[in-house]
């Protein structure tokens, strides 16, 4: 009887085992993740994301195959569009985005890189390598449903002027183009300059025609837009060092296996470090290249400490307005 029962059950057990094997194979599927960039393969942001893809594959030891699809050259729109897509869990899973675009959801995102927040590249690097910015990361995740994996950026912004300026007296009342964020106008007012908001595409003509005498940008922008043709004197104020977060859709992340989530988080952190070093070092090289070829002249700004002092109360008020007064002190306390 026992032998007969075993014979009858054997096909059922074998069929069950085969079914379980088929389920296991089906579960080991290919996971496809989509990235987006406004730029081509050569841009620092795209290379940061390529490094993220490479490291994620390296760090992930799970059963699934990983496939990354990068949409280049604004194929899926601009950074503000990527942020909206990631918030909805559609079309884009990861991207590098300026804090201003994330601020549509989280006002605290703008606290990542206002002018004069960082004393110098060393301070900037130490802050980004620490966990002091975690309150901003938490707010972005809560309000935008985007996880900040790591920090790219590193573009050091200087004054572009049609005459040499080396100190506070020489920049007093100089008409300068600033970006549209109110904090920009407030800070350049505090520096004693005369800021006005002008579209980026109109800066060249505005300096050329005398509407303004100055603008501000990092090396890559100066080269791309040929600002040196109308503002050949670059005053090395280093008044702003950019932070460009690598962000991942929360809705996508929560659907992924936990071991893959862990790999993505570590890969994003390490790729951010790679991106910062890349952009910071390349910016110095671009500026030297332009100066060596006679296209511009760099001028030492001798009173940068005065810029920091002028900016401090404005920044303190700015952080206070968004409920993060203690965060400003914590950032400045890092040595």
Verbal overview:
It is a single chain. The chain has 335 residues and is α/β, with parallel strands linked by helices. The protein has a single domain, classed as Bacterial extracellular solute-binding protein, family 7 (D-Maltodextrin-Binding Protein, domain 2). The protein has 14 helices and 9 strands. The protein has helices at 2-27, 44-59, 79-88, 99-102, 121-129, 134-144, 168-171, 182-190, 203-208, 219-225, 250-253, 258-292, 304-321, 325-332, and strands at 30-36, 65-71, 94-96, 146-161, 175-178, 194-197, 214-217, 233-249, 297-300. The strands form 2 sheets. Strands 1, 2, 3, 4, 7, 8 and 9 form a 7-stranded mixed β-sheet that branches. Strand 5, helix 8 (182-190) and strand 6 (194-197) form a beta-alpha-beta unit. The longest helix is centred in the last third of the chain and has 35 residues, at 258-292. It is globular, with a radius of gyration of 25 Å. The model is unreliable at 1-26 (pLDDT under 50).
């Amino acid at each position: 009887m026992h032998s007969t029962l075993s014979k009858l059950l054997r096909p059922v057990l074998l069929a069950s085992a085969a079914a379980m094997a088929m389920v296991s194979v089906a579960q080991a599927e290919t996971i496809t993740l989509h990235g987006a960039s406004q730029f081509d393969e050569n841009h620092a942001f795209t290379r940061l994301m390529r490094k993220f893809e490479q490291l994620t594959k390296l760090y992930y030891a799970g059963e699934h195959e990983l496939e990354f699809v990068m949409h280049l050259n604004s194929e899926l729109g601009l950074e503000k569009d990527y942020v909206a897509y990631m918030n909805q869990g559609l079309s884009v899973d990861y991207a590098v985005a300026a804090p201003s675009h994330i601020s549509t959801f989280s006002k605290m995102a703008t606290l990542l890189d206002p002018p004069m927040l960082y004393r110098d590249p060393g301070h900037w690097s130490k802050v980004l390598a620490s966990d002091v910015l975690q309150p901003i990361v938490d707010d972005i995740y809560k309000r935008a449903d985007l996880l900040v994996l790591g920090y790219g950026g590193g573009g050091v912004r200087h004054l572009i002027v049609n005459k040499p300026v080396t100190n506070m007296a020489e920049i007093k009342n100089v008409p300068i183009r600033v970006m549209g964020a109110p904090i920009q106008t407030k800070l350049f007012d505090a520096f004693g300059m005369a800021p006005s908001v002008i579209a980026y595409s109109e800066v060249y003509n505005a300096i050329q025609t005398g509407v303004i005498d100055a603008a501000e940008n990092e090396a890559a922008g100066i080269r791309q837009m040929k600002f040196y043709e109308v503002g050949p004197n670059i005053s090395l104020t280093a008044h702003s060092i950019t932070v460009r977060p690598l962000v991942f859709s929360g809705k996508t992340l929560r659907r992924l296996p936990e071991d893959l989530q862990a790999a993505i988080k570590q890969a994003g952190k390490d790729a951010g470090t790679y991106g910062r070093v890349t952009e910071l070092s390349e910016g110095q090289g671009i500026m030297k290249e332009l100066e060596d070829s006679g296209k511009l002249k760099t001028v030492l700004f001798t009173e940068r400490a005065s810029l920091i002092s002028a900016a401090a109360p404005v920044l303190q008020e700015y952080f206070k307005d968004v409920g993060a007064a203690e965060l400003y002190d914590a950032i400045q306390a890092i040595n």
